[in-house]
Amino acid sequence: MTPAVVLAAAAGISAAAALAELAAAPRRARRGGRAAGGGGHLGGMAVLLARLAQGAGRRAAPADLHARLAAAGTPLGLGVSDVMALKAAGAAAGLLLALPVATLAPGRLGIALALAAPVAGFRAPDVALRRRARARAARVRAELADVAELLRVAVEAGLPVGRALAEVGRRLPGGLLGAEFGAAAARMELGEPRERALALLLERCPVDGVATLAAAIGRSDRHGAPLAPALADLAAEARAQQARELHDGAARAAPKIQLVVALVLVPAVMLLMAAVLLQTLVNR
Fold first, then answer.
1. 173 and 121, same structural domain?
2. Do 101 and 77 form a contact (C-beta atoms < 8 A)?
3. What are phi and psi of 250, to 5 degrees?
4. What is the pLDDT of residues 85-126, one digit of tens each?
5. How far apart, in whole angstroms, are the C-alpha atoms of residue 246 and residue 244?
6. What is the pTM assigned to this prediction?
7. Which of 231, 197, 153, 248 is nearest to 205 (CA)?
8. CA distances in angstroms from 113 to 31, 95, 100, 127, listed in the order given
């Protein structure tokens, strides 16, 4: 590897770090910039450039990015503009890091690498958000039956809906759905309308069971329909869904086990038998 390639790689890494620092500058400035007296002309310029980049990113952001952020649990308190700034930084970092390798790649492979790396860097935050949202949805489905059953018990005990949600959150502090229920109850206590609090809960937990629960609470508020039977049906359906998922997982695992046996265990046994037979023939 030539010195030029090493210097180019170092420049790419430094540029990626600088872009990440630029994207994080507004948040640090909001927390401590005023107390520090502005941080000098260089810090002020970085903050200004980052705010301009975030403003442009907010205007160019996809329409569903806010919903995807909410479904992912708003990691690190990031907003839409922050994610767009990270996407731009990832694209620039991917290009800068790929250039040294692209110069060494033969033929058109270098051009393809130089084009693919920025796209991969730009899409990396989307992939991370999607994986986090899937993991959260899986946790919510796993906890839904117990949470709905506990909420039914609280409602049947005579607690109002807001108090029942808070009680569920208090008794299930380690669960994701219980924590979201507690946060929704806290927003209601601060004066936020119940409909808006439930809508935000559904944004952060976009699962069919949570939508059914929010709809049942809405019907109970509007028409006075009893909430406990709907919660009991929801808990039963959630447990049935868990059983179906376990059955489907076991059904999908059987062909994989058979494939492992056919491709790994059977050839290993045959090789062992061949080795024993060969040793027997050699000894004769």
1. no
2. no
3. -65, -40
4. 889 888 888 888 888 888 888 878 888 888 899 999 999 999
5. 5
6. 0.69
7. 197
8. 39, 9, 10, 19
